[in-house]
Amino acid sequence: MLRRLMVLVIAGVLAIGALLAYSSGFDLPIPGPGTTATAPPAPPSSNDHDLPTAPGSAAESATVVRVVDGDTLVIDRGNGDERVRLVGVDTPETVAPNSPVECFGPEASAYLTGMLTGASVRLDADPSQADADRYGRLLRYVWVADETGSWVSVEALLLAGGYAEPYRDAHSRKAGFDAVAAESQAAGRGLWSACP
Q1: Which of 82, 107, 122, 137 is labelled catalytic?
Q2: What is the CATH number of the domain that holds 76?
Q3: Which DSSP string corresponds to the chain?
Q4: What is the model's pTM?
């Protein structure tokens, strides 16, 4: 009974967060416990952090079918559903088997759900990474168009809003992602102020 109640509470929190994210658009972060609603940080530019400002020429188009959690998506490139693990970021767990839901995980999942569900995206492979991880998920950087039609790095948005930490392993955008996360941490955004 307690387990069923916990599942219902978590599902309710995720649903409310997703609704808030969807109704406000992906440009507004969802305030988490201990945070206040503030204007979102501007997406990092390549000049500031040596990050690309658009998908590469070999990027593939896809549609996001659903969000699994803050760093995993189900997409369709025309071949049916495939899972994608975002390169370079790590969000708190919400669906890991035999693991508790981690602090700020529901907020990260809801933010990504509001931003990407049903969206057309571009997928960039990283030549320093394998094509897929040990779970068979494609490893890709993901880009989404903002309201002006400009491409924005989903990973940079997660890091700038405090929804994710930079992944520890090496990848081609590590230095830029580390810099974005350091700014977010210094500003106390998202998980940086909400989680012990």
Answers
A1: 137
A2: 2.40.50.90
A3: -HHHHHHHHHHHHHHHHHHHHHHH-TTSPPP-TT----PPPPPPPHHHHS--SS--TTPEEEEEEEEEETTEEEEESSSSEEEEEETTEE---SS-TT-PPPTTHHHHHHHHHHHHTT-EEEEE--TTS-SB-TTS-EEEEEEEE-TTS-EEEHHHHHHHTTS-EE-SS--TTHHHHHHHHHHHHHHT-THHHH--
A4: 0.78
**pLDDT 10s digit of each residue in the chain, 196 long?**
444 444 344 444 444 443 334 333 334 333 333 333 333 455 555 456 778 999 999 999 999 999 999 999 999 999 999 999 999 999 999 998 888 999 999 999 999 999 999 999 999 999 999 999 999 999 999 999 998 999 999 999 999 999 999 998 899 999 999 999 999 999 999 999 999 8
Q: Which of 93, 107, 155, 165 is catalytic?
A: 93
85 given a catalytic annotation: yes
Look up 93 and say whether it is catalytic.
yes
Domain assignment present for residue 46? The answer is: no
Catalytic residue among 82, 85, 140, 155: 85
Could you tell me the residue range of the domain that residue 82 belongs to? 2-30+57-194
